[in-house]
Amino acid sequence: MLAENLPIDLGLLIANLPIFLLVMGFTCLAPLFRGRLKPLSYILIAAGFVVGIAALVLVYVLFSSGRYDPFTLGILTVAGLMLFLRPVKNIRWAALVAFVIGAAAAYYAYLAFQVTTTVLIIVFVAATLLLYLLFKFAEDLIGIVGAILSFPPIAIIIGTICVVQAILMLMGQSLVAFIPPIRL
Questions:
Q1: Per-residue exposure over 83-115, b if at least 16 CB sit within 10 Å of its own CB, e if not
Q2: Strands, E, within the chain: which ranges?
Q3: Tens digits of residue pLDDT in 95-135
Q4: DSSP code of 36?
Q5: Cα 48 to chain centroid, rounded
Q6: Are 98 and 131 in contact (CB under 8 A)?
Q7: Per-domain boundaries in the chain
Q8: For helices 70-88 and 38-65, angle between their N-to-C axes, nearest 10 degrees
Q9: Is the pTM above the cut of 0.85?
Q10: 7-45: per-residue pLDDT in tens?
């Protein structure tokens, strides 16, 4: 299982899941800090990136072990994605990755087949363009999801849900108990 291979102890996070949800909730509320408190917002965004990664790993571990209700896993997933994608959505990496892989493809084509320069240029251009289109689509998709989840009203709602769920978990309840069942 993944939990045994990680360098950190996830058992501590699992045992203190309500506290972790509180931390996630407060880092989700970074858009609230403006004006003089803007540096605090940047600190929360940087800390939120690490917390988001930990949340996504925690979701995987909890899901694979069958613990916790799906509602808590959903909250962790959405908040973890938001915290992870908030700073990542602005990074433009598709061209760099496509260039590096295109250059590596041309290099290996030269090593394996000893082809001419024209063929190397064709291999480089074809690999670079194909991979750029693929990675640009992924980059745009990440940007869209990150922008939607990082939109301040949505981020505040997600953060508030995390805090409320954490408080209810500390009291031995869940937010799902307050949602009426859907009857078809």
A1: bbbbbebeeeebeebbeebbeebbeebeeeeee
A2: none
A3: 999 999 999 999 999 999 988 999 999 999 999 999 999 99
A4: G
A5: 10
A6: yes
A7: 2-88+146-175, 94-135
A8: 140
A9: no
A10: 556 677 777 889 999 999 999 988 888 788 888 888 988
